[in-house]
Design goal:
Shape: globular
CATH topology of the largest domain: Fructose-1,6-Bisphosphatase, Chain A, domain 1
Number of domains: 2
Number of strands: 15
Largest sheet: 8 strands, mixed
Oligomer: single chain
Helix content: 25-40%
Distance between the termini: 34 Å
Strand content: 25-35%
Amino acid sequence: MESLSAAERKQFEAFATGIADNARALSLPRFRRPVDVTLKGDMSPVTAVDRGVESMLRERIEMAWPMHGLLGEEYGATRVDAEFVWSIDPIDGTRSFISGWPLWGTLIALLHRGRPVLGVLDMPALDERWIGHKGAGTTMNGAPCRTSACDRLAAATIYTTTPDMFTPDEWARFDRTSREAYARRFGGDCYGYGMLASGHIDAVIEANLMPYDYLAIAPVVEAAGGVMTDWEGRPLGLESGARVVAAATPALHAALIESLARS
């Protein structure tokens, strides 16, 4: 896959940060305010804020880049075989949003030929934003950030959002792996990946995800020095499955993959 030029990276970043600002302007005023909640077919909650933010993002993308593809949580996929595809999750962590918990975010990714090359992880309630470019580094609120140097499972702090996301077999694998670590913690939705990119924690292991849950996060983690793949160690893209492993270093990532593979 060809890398984007510096001019292309600058152009796409300016656009992505602009629409992230627009998304924040829509979602943040509704946070910790009364909001109607309905359940989707998979019994996950959705609000008018989720749908309104995604509708705005899709409109902005389609106006600016009419030949680009789109993947979104609420309104599906269009032209995903295009050279460039945008992936958007308007509110990652809707359960956090509706319960007044500030660890929800907006995720925006740009994929080039099926692989994520630019990711924006925006946390409106915390006023924190990570931007990662493949091959060009990650920033948090404009300052460069790096993953930790942790290279041993026994020294690692591992996060996951909730035990509820795992099947019984996946939970057995996660439970065994995380108990070999220095510490494990629960909660965070997309925020844990920002903490990983900034070097505060060392790994995130999750399952039962959709591509829009992780495509924006992969460039943020990888451009900060980390590694993020599926549980089998394969790169993430539009066709990846539901399970991801993100680690601060290649050595730690290899140890996690090896541990998770044991039945």
